[in-house]
Amino acid sequence: MTQDDAKALVGKRAAAMVEDGMRVGLGTGSTSVQFIKALGARVQQGLKIRAVASSDSSAELGRSLGIEVVSLEEMPEIDLYIDGADEVAPGLALIKGGGAALLREKIVASSSKRFVCVVDESKLVPHLGKFPLPIEIIKMARPLVEDKLFKLGLNPMLRMQKDGASPLLTDEQNYILDCHCGVIEDPEKTAAEIRAIVGVVEHGLFLRMAEVALVAGGNGVTEYNG
Ligand SMILES: O=C(CO)[C@H](O)[C@H](O)COP(=O)(O)O
């Protein structure tokens, strides 16, 4: 099975979890795109739901497929949030933010009764940290935050646009620093240290947030509980 097939399989499986009347959170990234497409197909067949999106791109995709996408102000509580991840470690500790949407993703996840993470098996790791940890920061705080992150040994690098000409801006018009920190021995401690830095808006460590991970691989979809 190719990675694309695995993403499509797990996206479809997650879409099958959605029931009539549910308030649904739409994640961001290529696996979430597969989920949103499968959900859109169900909506076109008559499923009645309302959704909140974790990025402008997911909102746009959802609406283009006929999904009613509203703001979190209009629908502050969500029943089921489906989103991908960049790394999944034991205990369902996650790194997210490869698609620069970690802030809105964490807000939507925190507004949801259930967060189901959807990944292909390449995302499973014994320890977090091989994937650079994204941190969303206020633009003017960049020198201050970079200095503190270097002192913590987290090796931040400003994320650039694809053409490399200018820094990438998130949907909230902030910068992303990708931290090449290697294995994160104590994610809770690292999360607390990052959070204590003035100018940090949010980090991509999602700890004790996902209830279930659906992992697609050669044997189909396997369910892991947190
Ligand atoms: O956190 C994210 C976006 O900010 C994504 O969920 C994460 O990057 C995984 O993306 P993909 O499904 O494309 O591998």
TrEMBL record:
<dbReference type="InterPro" id="IPR020672">
    <property type="entry name" value="Ribose5P_isomerase_typA_subgr"/>
</dbReference>
<comment type="function">
    <text>Catalyzes the reversible conversion of ribose-5-phosphate to ribulose 5-phosphate.</text>
</comment>
<protein>
    <recommendedName>
        <fullName>Ribose-5-phosphate isomerase A</fullName>
        <ecNumber>5.3.1.6</ecNumber>
    </recommendedName>
</protein>
<comment type="similarity">
    <text>Belongs to the ribose 5-phosphate isomerase family.</text>
</comment>
<comment type="subunit">
    <text>Homodimer.</text>
</comment>
<feature type="binding site">
    <location>
        <begin position="83"/>
        <end position="86"/>
    </location>
    <ligand>
        <name>substrate</name>
    </ligand>
</feature>
<feature type="binding site">
    <location>
        <begin position="28"/>
        <end position="31"/>
    </location>
    <ligand>
        <name>substrate</name>
    </ligand>
</feature>
<comment type="pathway">
    <text>Carbohydrate degradation; pentose phosphate pathway; D-ribose 5-phosphate from D-ribulose 5-phosphate (non-oxidative stage): step 1/1.</text>
</comment>
<keyword id="KW-0413">Isomerase</keyword>
<feature type="binding site">
    <location>
        <begin position="96"/>
        <end position="99"/>
    </location>
    <ligand>
        <name>substrate</name>
    </ligand>
</feature>
<feature type="binding site">
    <location>
        <position position="123"/>
    </location>
    <ligand>
        <name>substrate</name>
    </ligand>
</feature>
<dbReference type="InterPro" id="IPR037171">
    <property type="entry name" value="NagB/RpiA_transferase-like"/>
</dbReference>
<dbReference type="GO" id="GO:0004751">
    <property type="term" value="F:ribose-5-phosphate isomerase activity"/>
</dbReference>
<dbReference type="Pfam" id="PF06026">
    <property type="entry name" value="Rib_5-P_isom_A"/>
</dbReference>
<feature type="active site" description="Proton acceptor">
    <location>
        <position position="105"/>
    </location>
</feature>
<dbReference type="InterPro" id="IPR004788">
    <property type="entry name" value="Ribose5P_isomerase_type_A"/>
</dbReference>
